[in-house]
Design a protein that fits this description.
The chain is low in regular secondary structure. It contains no helices and no strands.
């Protein structure tokens, strides 16, 4: 049309109708014996001031089955390509490419399938990629299943095909892109919320193998400047909180897998190394417990539990603190006990040796009380079928200086009596001797041996305490009391002094022998020693 207003003429190719099968319209390029066959080109008209024309290729509708649409390239030594491209936009958005299957009112909706072709030397790729740009955001890629108002929504499956011949199956990589000057993209893996039922699980599992199982690695990002990324594993909250289970694999014919929880080192030599914190949950009735136990053994040695602080090359090593919690009602107990067996385990509490200073102390102290009795400290040997265990308190030995002292001191009081000190052996309930008590200082070489002082304390405003040395009564015979000064192979023997106390009236000295109920009373003998050299008096 030359007037610039009317519509240009149309070309209509219309095959004939029929009651059984309508006529076909066939447009084909010419064949070539050698060279390139003839092309078929269908294009709409261009426009200088409006929209160019559309190209519509569609199969006919029917009340039984709609016609199919087949776009396929030709087969040859090298197969032809199929390209579907939307038009570029020079001053606006480029055209979209929409591939959508049809909806159904009485059956399944149509599927959309995109598949790379099979090949003798390698399968073809299937690539879905968002568009790139030099300004703004790149195009997104979305895989979304279909929703349903009366059933389950559709699933989304991303999987590589199993390898039917010796070789690796295909890898699956889900990764956000790197970034410059901004955060890289996040990776979110989550199931949807649910109303009235359980939410979906997230399962991350490696397949089984004949030679070895694959590993699962979850690692936060490292940083050359700034803090490394955090790693958080937490169970869900609810009417009852979810559990967190970390379990290593069993060893069918070897060792079971280890569980290692290790924090990172501080490499600058100044900052503090990372901490490991295990904290049970709080509760209004009973707080959660922390249980650390070694593994059981059917035969052999059970697993050990070892808690040790860190060492140091230039400072103090770390402390180990084990303490029960405080309370306004009753503090928690602390129980250190070895295991029972045919031979019971030992309990050892040792302080560290000092290579250039004093060794560490061992302090065992009961707690103080503001409104009741202070706590007791009890050390007791265990009972046994063939003999009771010993209780030994011994000062430390040394090759230079004085040996360690042993002190038994009762507690003082500002409002009552001080505590007593009792040293006694247990009475024998069966025929046999009760245990002996020996209080003796050690021998010495080139110096005096240690003194033995038995005395009561001074008193202000009342009598001082007595010293009673008495042997127990007996059916067959009474035991003796022997007080003897020391003998000397050179020099004078030791003196024996018995004296009463001085006062407003001096104290008496009574020496009395025992009565004889059916025999003679006891004698009192005062005899001095002989001089054996024949010269001395």
């Amino acid at each position: 049309s030359a007037d610039g207003v009317s519509v240009g003429g149309r070309v209509i190719i219309d095959a004939g109708s029929s009651g059984t099968e309508g006529g076909a319209v066939v447009v084909s390029g010419g064949d070539a014996g050698a060279g390139v066959g003839g092309a078929v080109e269908i294009s709409s008209g261009t426009s200088d001031g409006g929209a160019s024309g559309d190209v519509r290729v569609g199969a006919g509708s029917s009340t039984v089955q709609g016609g199919g649409l087949n776009l396929s390239s030709g087969s040859a030594a090298v197969g032809g390509s199929v390209e579907i491209n939307s038009g570029a936009g020079s001053a606006g958005a480029a055209g979209d490419v929409n591939i959508a299957a049809g909806e159904s009112l009485a059956g399944l909706g149509g599927s959309v399938k995109m598949q790379g072709g099979g090949g003798a030397s390698g399968g073809g790729n299937a690539v879905i990629k968002g568009g790139e740009t030099g300004a703004g955001d790149g195009g997104s890629v979305s895989l979304v299943s279909g929703g349903s108002t009366a059933g389950n929504s559709g699933s989304v499956s991303i999987l590589s095909k199993a390898s039917s011949a010796p070789g690796m199956s295909g890898a699956i990589e889900i990764s956000s892109g790197g970034a410059t000057g901004s955060e890289s993209g996040s990776l979110n893996l989550m199931t949807g919320s649910s109303s009235g039922a359980l939410t979906g699980n997230i399962n991350i599992a490696v397949g089984n193998g004949d030679v070895g199982g694959g590993s699962v690695v979850v690692a936060a990002g490292e940083a050359s400047a700034g803090s490394g990324g955090d790693l958080s594993v937490s169970s869900g909250s609810g009417m009852a909180g979810g559990e967190v289970l970390i379990t290593s694999g069993e060893g069918i014919a070897g060792s079971a897998g280890d569980i290692v929880a290790a924090v990172g080192d501080s490499a600058d030599g100044v900052s503090v190394g990372g901490r490991v914190i295990i904290d049970a949950g709080s509760s209004g009735t009973e707080g959660g417990a922390v249980v650390v136990s070694g593994g059981d053994a059917g035969a052999g040695v059970g697993g050990a539990v070892e808690i040790s602080s860190g060492t140091s090359d230039g400072g103090a090593s770390g402390d180990v603190r084990v303490g029960a919690g405080s309370s306004t009602v009753q503090g928690g107990g602390l129980n250190l006990s070895s295991g029972s067996a045919a031979v019971g385990g030992s309990v050892e509490i040792n302080s560290g040796a000092g290579s250039a200073g004093a060794a560490g102390d061992v302090n065992i102290a009961a707690g103080e009380s503001l409104a009741g009795l202070g706590g007791s400290v009890k050390m007791q040997g265990g009972g046994g079928a063939s003999g009771g265990g010993n209780a030994v308190i011994k000062g430390g030995e040394t090759g230079a200086g004085d040996g360690g002292s042993v002190s038994l001191v009762s507690g003082g009081s500002t409002a009552g009596n001080s505590g007593s000190v009792s040293i006694l052996s247990k009475a024998s309930s069966a025929p046999g001797m009760s245990g002996a008590i020996e209080i003796s200082s050690g021998g010495a070489t080139g110096s005096e041996s240690g003194s033995l002082n038995l005395m009561t304390g001074s008193s202000s405003g009342a009598l001082t305490g007595n010293i009673n040395i008495a042997v127990g009564n007996g059916d067959v015979g009474g035991g003796s009391v022997v007080v003897a000064a020391g003998e000397a192979s050179a020099g004078s023997g030791g003196d024996l002094s018995v004296s009463s106390g001085s006062g407003m009236a001096g104290g008496e000295v009574l020496i009395t022998s025992g009565e004889g109920i059916a025999g003679s009373a006891g004698d009192i003998v005062a005899a001095v020693g002989d001089s054996a050299d024949g010269v001395s008096v």
